[in-house]
Amino acid sequence: MWLFSLPIPSVAIEEQRLKAAITFKLTLFVSWPAKEKVLNLCTFSKYSFKSLKSTISHQISKGREIQVKLLGLDEDYSERCQILNLDNLSGSQITDILESIKKQPILTVGSGDSFAREGGMIGLYIDNNNVKFSINLHASRQAELNISSSLLKLAAKVY
């Protein structure tokens, strides 16, 4: 009977943690125009926030601490965030956000290959039990973010 009282990890939670860890690794291959002491990774999803905070908050990426912040959709994120996680938002919300920050140096990360194909910078997705990612090089260049050629070579697709 005691077996049923043990927490059983959810596949979705494990996937979120894995995507969070990969998001951290991605920051090692991206250069921002301004050298802030902190990289603020912002999300609008409480679900993503928990995984991001427990997995990568306070990690150091290229000498900068990552801080994870949960924002409301009505908050100004354009000046506060260097990385924006757009998981668990509707298509129209994602489109509106991407349009509002199009030329700002904010790395956008979302779910699915379609995320990068439709204007986001890096789309993470599961394919045959492997996490893969696609990169929208045009979007990152518009935002003056430099993505390492090493990362581009690892991407499943580059747009």
TrEMBL record:
InterPro entries: YfiR/HmsC-like. This is Transmembrane protein. It comes from Endozoicomonas montiporae.
